[in-house]
Amino acid sequence: MNRHEFLRGLHRVTATRNYLEIGVNDGRSLTLSQVPSIGIDPAFKVNVELRADIHLVKATSDDFFATKDPLGHLKSARNPVKNARKGRPLFAHYRGGTTLDLAFIDGMHLFEYALRDFMNVERFSRWDSVIVLDDMLPRDIDEAARDRHTDAWTGDVYKLIPVLAKYRPELTVVPVDTEPTGVLLILGADPGSTVLKDHYDEIVQEWVVPDPQKVPEGILSRVDAVSPEMLLRGGFWTDLVRNRNRRAARTRYDALRGQVNAALGRS
Ligand SMILES: C[S@@+](CC[C@H](N)C(=O)[O-])C[C@H]1O[C@@H](n2cnc3c(N)ncnc32)[C@H](O)[C@@H]1O
């Protein structure tokens, strides 16, 4: 299964009510969204039909998140009158604050950018938000170079896997074996966590190193990556969606994490 097929599956199983994408390019991932969305890219060149109420932002993700009310567009999509006019369920997006249901991070493929993108997305997420990062499983050292010299390019964003394991072990981090270059799915976001912010300088100092990158063998061989089909079939999605729609307290997260690990045969 390729990353766009997996993303299409995620839109379905998460019954997502909103969507944020960093890195739009020609729109092939953004076109999968049919809900109020934000797409961010300083150089988008969309050449496909988009079928949603989208704020297409021409800026870098850092600049976008530095604005006063970055998710303002999603708030306006919660207006019941506007919903009625657009044929959406009246209160579909109305309850609670604006938090992201589904986010896809696929912008600048350098580790420190992807780290900041995750930190910024997490500020607007809940424990039951679904955050996905693209190009997390490079196939060789050349593809993982910081200085791009290949057609397909993952850069060194894969480093988020060991960094989150070290600094944020409470997150549920699932490498997914999609074609061509794998994705990472993250649950359990905690907008109140300051761990990554507090350690940002130290993390960048340790992990931003010149090419060639030393990609761990386990990442190249995808030994821990799960099948995208199996992940999408997981019985836990129904509970995740129910909890999210009821804005259930984070105390439910442990149970969800247990369900995910059981479904994936992880301990
Ligand atoms: C791999 S492409 C995105 C592909 C798209 N998500 C898809 O699946 O079809 C990466 C995009 O990230 C954009 N980009 C580069 N630096 C960025 C940044 N700092 N913030 C947001 N987007 C960025 C590039 O302009 C490029 O269009």
Characterize the structure shown:
The structure is a single chain. The chain has 267 residues and is an alpha/beta fold. The chain has a single domain, classed as Rossmann fold, CATH 3.40.50.150. 34% of the residues lie in helices and 12% in strands. Strands 3-2-1-4-5-7-6 form a seven-stranded mixed beta sheet, sandwiched between helices. S-adenosylmethionine (SAM) binds at residues 22-23, 25, 28-29, 40-43, 60-61, 106-108, 113.
Topology, pairings included?
Elements: H1 3-13, E1 19-22, E2 37-40, E3 54-57, H2 61-65, H3 72-76, H4 80-85, E4 102-105, H5 111-123, E5 130-134, H6 160-167, E6 172-176, E7 183-187, H7 195-198, H8 200-207, H9 217-220, H10 228-233, H11 236-245, H12 253-263
Parallel strand pairs: 1-2, 1-4, 2-3, 4-5
Antiparallel strand pairs: 5-7, 6-7
This protein binds S-adenosylmethionine.
From the structure above, extract its key features.
alpha/beta; seven-stranded mixed sheet; Rossmann fold; binds S-adenosylmethionine; 7 strands; 267 residues; globular
- List low-pLDDT spans: none
Q: Strands of the biggest beta sheet: in what spatial order?
A: 3-2-1-4-5-7-6
Name every ligand kind in the structure. S-adenosylmethionine
Strand content: 5-15%
CATH structural architecture: 3-Layer(aba) Sandwich
- SSE pattern, N- to C-terminal: HEEEHHHEHEHEEHHHHHH
DSSP summary, beta strand count: 7
Fraction of residues in helix: 25-40%
Please indicate the count of domains. 1
Major sheet summary line? 7 strands, mixed
Identify the CATH homologous superfamily: Vaccinia Virus protein VP39
Mean pLDDT: 94
So what's the overall shape?
A: globular
Radius of gyration: 18 Å
